[in-house]
Amino acid sequence: MEFYSEKISACHPSIAGAFGFLDGLSLPVSTSSNPEIEQATYNGWLHLHRITNVIVFALDGCILSARINAPGSWHNAPDTAFPRTSEELAGKIKTPLKDRAALGNDPVQADEQLAYSNTITSARQPAEWGMRALQGAYGRLRMPLDITNPIGRWVLLDTCFRLHNLRTRLIGINQIRSVYMRKWGSKDDHFIHNLHSMMFSDIRNNDRVKCFYLELALAPSRT
Question: Where is the DDE Tnp4 domain (predicted)?
Answer without folding.
Answer: 22-165
